[in-house]
Amino acid sequence: MASKPGLLTDWPWSFLGSNKYLVLVPLLGHAAATLLTTESKERDYGLLFPFYLLVLRLIHNQLWITLSRFQTARSKHRIQFKSIEFQQVDRERHWDDQVIMYSILIYAGMFIFPEGKHLPFWNTKGAVIITLLHVGPVEFIYYWAHRALHHHYLYSRYHSHHHSSFVTEPVTEHILYFFIFSLPVMVAVYAGDGSIGAVGGYIVWNDIMNNVGHCNFEFVPTWAFKMIPFLKYLMYTPSFHSLHHSQIHTNFSLFMPLYDHMYGTMDKTTDNLYEISTIGREDKIDVVHLTHPTSLHSIYQLRLGFSYLASQPYTSKWYLWSMWPVTTFLMLVIWIFNCTFTVEKQKLDKLEMQVWAIPRYSFHYSMESQKKPINYLIEKAILDAESRGIKVISLGLLNQGEELNTNGEIYLQKNDKLKIRVVDGSTLAAAVIFNTIPKETSQVLFAGHITKTCYLVALELCKKGSQVIVQRPEEFKKLKSRVPTEFQDCMVRASSSNRFKCKVWLVDNELNEREQRRAPTGTMFIPFSMFPVKETRKDCVYHSTPSMKIPPKLENVHSCENWLPRRVMSAWRVAGILHALEGWEWHECGNAVLDINKVWSSALNHGFQPS
């Protein structure tokens, strides 16, 4: 019979969800009231230290998370190759709870222990005391506590075997470690040598070393251990600690491997794994999907941003608006560096895939002055992929379009000997849309700018005898000119009589509220654009952008693709994967299209399903 989790296996404020930082409001209010009611000469601004430390730790840990995710998606020095899934991201959603706990306990300690008040900013003697006590008693106590807890059922249940922040242990373990780490601080404070700088520096240093052990890429140079051979007993490496997670019964030390050497718990493969990880293992990538950030806030929703946001479909969050200085800074950074960057990496059987992002946001694509720079970046990405032996590159979101690059054709015209296959994914997008339309439908209204995808859907509808109604006169002429003569009778201009009867509308994201009001009750809005239409009516049905559910064997998927649900990919992205799986030797860009039925059957045969 399963045992019931004991006391403090969850955080006391877990019921607050994402509002958990409210637990700090009373403390912050108390600190502010104390400062305001105290004479200016006697005010102790050290009361704000726990809150400054909290912000510093949150920023620091997030930077490590971003760096770790960036490196594990692209670096050859990755240590462990086990995939991360949404379940792990959900477990680690509360990585910052221990940061909140530290702030609460530090603030409480400042009032419980009078010695903790009015600390100077720095005291060298206190810093030395903290350092020596950490190297000695703290490392020793932690080693044995860690070994003991390792055999406890709570630890076995909660300890993560993946590489991330030290966050999935029960609360009791965090409290135990807090008191272990507080020993050097307490001694320094009681000796009268405590200081805010030494205490804060010690906690941040612990964070740094903790993140080093969990970053999952090796970066500690071999020359450091060759110059100082004894260093291997004093400082661990990412590969050293990774073996504790993968082998479980070895490498228990905190940051100093000394005690593992002394007590025989050093993993035998430690040195070998370090050498292999330092040299690196190059991965052969087969498919690249080329995308770009959408809104300014979407940078946080990428896998490299906030992991809990990336694991959910994109929605605008009110608190992100308060981060506008950071948002603006990030936009300027990627603009200045002007380099395509790797976002994520997945695997399907033996097929290795990456997602690259162009350093431009959606609004840049509507600027005439940016078309040339964007095309340069896309072409550069294609040529870079070509030089690395990548088989297929698919163009996502606004990286394809008739006005921008004639659906990718200009890159083939400039580089006619490309071995890499450039895919715009229009055929699969059209297949998804066509199979979303109810089979008994006799009329379909097209509202929006006609694209290559629209043409393919319209052609299939005409083949089955359905009437294609086009709302805009100029778009009607454009579409009709591309439809073969034998299907011309199926093409109809929109009028008040047929518009209000048609209950299936194919739309782009520019369909406004006024146009949506013209649709009859129960209308099905199906987007053909890369971006979703804004939903304004409750009496109609809105579909998402063309997409498909991915097969269970597609690994390392732990972020959502923009607004799509978990484990759902855009049709344009799936198209590139199919191209590589099938080994098709032709491009799909410009006016080139594939057999829509063949592409749809291929998607289903490889385990992709309608979303």
Automatic annotation (TrEMBL):
It comes from the Eukaryota. Its main location: membrane. It is found in: Membrane. Pfam families: CER1-like_C (PF12076), FA_hydroxylase (PF04116). Keywords: Membrane, Transmembrane, Transmembrane helix. Residues 444-610 form the Very-long-chain aldehyde decarbonylase CER1-like C-terminal domain. GO terms for biological process: lipid biosynthetic process. It is a multi-pass membrane protein. The chain crosses the membrane at residues 20-38, 45-65, 99-114, 126-145, 174-192, 318-337. InterPro entries: CER1-like_C, Fatty_acid_hydroxylase, Sterol_Desaturase_Related. GO terms for molecular function: iron ion binding; oxidoreductase activity. Residues 133-265 form the Fatty acid hydroxylase domain. The keyword Membrane applies. PANTHER family: STEROL DESATURASE. This is Fatty acid hydroxylase domain-containing protein. It comes from Aquilegia coerulea.
